C-alpha cells in the first residue's frame, strides 16, 4: 500500500562505503513506501547507490574530512533524492559515453549512465566546491494514493 | 553480504562459482584476485558462474569487463554462465551482452571452449 504522505529525511555521512550502503538501503525503503513496483524499487536503489559511490569515491575521494549529504523527499507525484559531495566538481558534459565502441570495454564509467537509465530526471548542480545530483522518479497516480 | 568464490575444474576449464554481491569494495576485488590466481596457475579458460549473484553494480560490471579483457589478452577465453534476470538486464542496457559469450547450460558452456 503506497503512502501518500509527503516526507523528507536527510543524512550527513562520512565518505565511506558504509555510507554508500546506508544511502542505498534508505533509497530502497523510500521507494517501497512510495509504492513503486518490485522491478522499479531495485532500479531506484541502484541509481542512488551509483550516485553515492560517485560522491564518496570520485567526489570526496574517501577524504575523512569531507562529507556526503543525502536527502530523500517523497511528494505526491515524485520520489526526489539529492546526493551532494564536497569534491572538485563533476562536469556531466565531460563524461564519456560508455556505449561508444571505444569505451565499451572500459572497466569503469557506467555509473552516471545507469543513473540516467533508471531515473526519470537527473540534474547536476555545481556547489563550488562539490556537486549535487538530484534524482527524480515520478509516481503514478496509484502509487501516490490519489 | 559479501561475495564468495568456489573454484572447480571440469575438462580443463576453470569454473568460478560466484555468490553474493559484486559491488565496489565487496565482490569486485574478489573477482579480480580470483581471475588473477587462475591465470597465475596456468589456466586461461574460465567460466564465471553468476547464477547465485544477487546484485551487481557498475563497479561489478566494470570488473567483469576487466576480467574478460585480461583473460583475452592472455590468449584465453572467459565466458559467463547462468545470468540472473538482473544481471542479464544490466548487460543488455550497457550493450555488453553481445561482448560476452553468455551460456545458460554448464555442459554446453564447457564444450564451447576452444580445445
From TrEMBL, chain B:
<dbReference type="Pfam" id="PF01740">
    <property type="entry name" value="STAS"/>
</dbReference>
<dbReference type="GO" id="GO:0043856">
    <property type="term" value="F:anti-sigma factor antagonist activity"/>
</dbReference>
<feature type="domain" description="STAS">
    <location>
        <begin position="3"/>
        <end position="113"/>
    </location>
</feature>
<dbReference type="InterPro" id="IPR003658">
    <property type="entry name" value="Anti-sigma_ant"/>
</dbReference>
<dbReference type="InterPro" id="IPR002645">
    <property type="entry name" value="STAS_dom"/>
</dbReference>
<comment type="similarity">
    <text>Belongs to the anti-sigma-factor antagonist family.</text>
</comment>
<protein>
    <recommendedName>
        <fullName>Anti-sigma factor antagonist</fullName>
    </recommendedName>
</protein>
<dbReference type="InterPro" id="IPR036513">
    <property type="entry name" value="STAS_dom_sf"/>
</dbReference>
Amino acid at each position: 500500500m503506497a503512502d501518500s504522505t509527503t516526507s523528507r529525511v536527510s543524512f550527513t555521512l562520512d565518505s565511506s562505503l558504509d555510507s554508500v550502503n546506508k544511502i542505498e538501503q534508505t533509497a530502497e525503503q523510500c521507494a517501497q513506501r512510495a509504492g513503486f513496483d518490485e522491478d522499479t524499487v531495485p532500479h531506484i536503489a541502484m541509481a542512488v547507490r551509483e550516485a553515492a559511490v560517485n560522491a564518496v569515491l570520485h567526489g570526496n575521494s574517501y577524504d575523512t574530512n569531507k562529507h556526503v549529504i543525502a536527502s530523500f523527499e517523497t511528494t505526491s507525484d515524485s520520489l526526489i533524492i539529492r546526493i551532494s559531495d564536497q569534491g572538485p566538481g563533476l562536469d556531466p558534459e565531460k563524461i564519456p559515453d560508455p556505449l561508444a565502441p571505444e569505451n565499451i570495454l572500459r572497466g569503469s564509467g557506467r555509473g552516471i549512465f545507469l543513473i540516467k537509465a533508471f531515473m526519470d530526471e537527473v540534474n547536476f548542480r555545481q556547489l563550488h566546491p562539490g556537486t549535487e545530483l538530484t534524482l527524480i522518479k515520478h509516481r503514478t497516480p496509484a502509487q501516490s494514493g490519489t | 553480504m559479501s561475495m564468495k568464490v568456489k573454484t572447480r575444474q571440469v575438462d580443463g576449464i576453470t569454473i568460478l562459482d560466484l555468490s553474493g554481491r559484486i559491488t565496489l569494495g565487496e565482490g569486485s576485488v574478489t573477482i579480480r584476485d580470483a581471475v588473477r590466481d587462475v591465470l597465475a596457475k596456468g589456466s586461461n579458460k574460465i567460466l564465471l558462474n553468476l547464477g547465485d549473484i544477487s546484485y551487481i553494480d557498475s563497479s561489478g560490471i566494470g570488473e567483469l569487463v576487466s576480467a574478460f579483457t585480461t583473460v583475452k589478452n592472455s590468449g584465453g577465453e572467459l565466458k559467463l554462465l547462468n545470468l540472473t534476470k538482473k544481471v542479464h538486464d544490466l548487460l543488455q542496457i550497457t550493450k555488453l551482452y553481445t561482448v560476452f559469450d553468455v551460456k545458460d547450460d554448464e555442459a554446453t558452456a564447457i564444450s564451447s571452449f576452444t580445445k
